[in-house]
Amino acid sequence: MTTLFLAQSLTSAAPSDLKVWAYVGFVALVLIFLALDLGVFHRDAHEVSMKESLIWSAIWLTCGISFSAFVYFAYEGHWLGLGLNTPKYLDGKIVLGEVTGSVATIQYLTGYVVEKSLAMDNIFVIAMVFGFFAIPRKYQHRVLFWGIVGALVMRGGMIFLGAELIMRYTWILIFFGFFLILTALKMALIKSEEDPSKNPIVKLARKYFRTVDFFDGQRFFTRRTEPPVYETDSITGKATQLPARPGSLSLKSAITPLFLALIMVEITDLVFAVDSIPAIFAITPDPFIVFTSNIFAILGLRALYFCLAALIAKFRFLKPALILILAFVGVKLLLLAFPPYFNDLGLTASEIKSIKIEPMISLIVVLSTLFLASVLSILLPAKAQEHPVSTDK
Q: What phi-psi label fits residue 149: left (phi over 0), alpha (psi between -120 and 50 degrees) or beta?
C-alpha cells in the first residue's frame, strides 16, 4: 500500500517536485560512495601508493564519465521531470523550457572537464599545505576525505544560491563573466600566498584554542600532552600506539596539525569554488547539471592528488592553460549576457544580438587547450635547477 501511494504521488507530482527526488538520489549515491571509501577501502591509515591512486583515479573518472549516460537518458526521457521546465540560455536571457538528452550530456561533460581542470590548480595548494604541516602520507587521505565532505556541503549551497540568484537577477551573469576574466588575470600576474601560517583562520585557531605540534595517529583532536609512543610488532611489522603515560592526559582536547591542515584544505576549496562555480554557470544555468558535474569532479580529487602531487610540477604549461580556460568561459558569458542589457538601456542605435558559443564548441576548446598544454609540457620540460636543494634530513 505504501509503495502504491508513493508511486501515485510521483506520477501526479509536478516536474519541479519530481526533480527533488533526482537530487535526493544523487546525494544518496555520493554518500554510498563515500561510506565505502572510508569505511571499507580506507578504514586503516596507510600510505597511498602510485598504483592504488591510479586505480582509484580510473574508477572515479569512469564514474564521472559514465554518469553522462544517465544524464542523456534521464533528460531524453524526462525522468523525474529532468529536462522539463529547465533553465537554459536563449538570446542572452534565462528561460524555462525543454532540454534534450544530447544537449544536457554535452553540457555535463563540458562542466565536468572544466571543473576537473580547475581542480588541478587546487592540487598545488593542497601539496603546499601538507608540506607546511608535515602531514605524513598515511594520514593525508583522511584529511582529503573530510575535506571533500565539507566541499560537498559548501559547493552545494553555493550552487543552489547561485542558481536562484541568476534566475531572479540575470545581470549577475555579467558579474560572473567579469569575475572570471579578473580571476584569470590574477592567476597570470599575481603570485598567491604560499605560507599557510599567515592565514587568519590558522592564526585565530592557534590564538584562541589549545593546539599541539605532534600527531596522535589520525585524530583531529587529542588530550595528550606528549607525543605518542609506538611499538612495532616484530612479526607483522605493524606499529601499534602505546597507551598514554599516567598523568600525561589533559582534561581539555587540543587541535592537532591534522585538523589545522583540514581547515586550510576547506578554505582552499572555498576559494577555488568561488572561481569555478561561475565558470560552470557560463556553460549552463541548469542547477542539476552544475551540481552533479561539480561534485563528480571533486570526488576524484583525492586520488588525483596522490597521482599528480609529485608529477604536476612537470606540467609547466598547465597553469597557463587554466588561465586561458577561465578567460574563455568569462568572455563566453559576456558575449551571451551583455548585448541584451545594451539594448534595454538604449545604448545602441540598432539591436545587438547575443553571441552564443555552442556547448560542443566549448567542450572542444577546453579539451584542446588541456591537450596542447600537456603536449607542450612534455616536449618543452622545465629546466632542472643547477643546484637542487637537498630534502634529506
A: alpha
Neighbours of 93 (CB within 10 A): 13
Q: Which of 354, 384, 393, 380 is nearest to 95 (CA)?
A: 354
CA 121 to chain CA centroid, nearest Å: 11
Q: Taking the model in full, what pTM does it have?
A: 0.78
Q: Is 227 left (phi over 0), alpha (psi -120 to 50) or beta?
A: beta
Cα–Cα nearest to 328, from 110, 27, 13, 43: 110
In whole angstroms, what is the distance from residue 209 CA to residue 366 CA?
A: 45
Burial of 62 (0-12, 13-18, 19+ CB in 10 A): exposed
Q: Are strands 249-255 and 221-224 parallel, antiparallel or unpaired?
A: antiparallel
User: Which residues on adjacent β-strands are paired with residue 8?
Assistant: none
Query: Splitting the chain (393 residues) into consecutive groups of 10 residues, what average pLDDT does each group show?
Result: 40 66 93 80 70 85 95 96 92 87 95 83 74 83 86 87 84 82 80 61 83 89 91 80 88 91 86 80 92 89 71 71 82 77 56 74 83 86 54 39
Q: What sign for the dihedral angle of Cα 271, 275, 278, 280?
A: negative
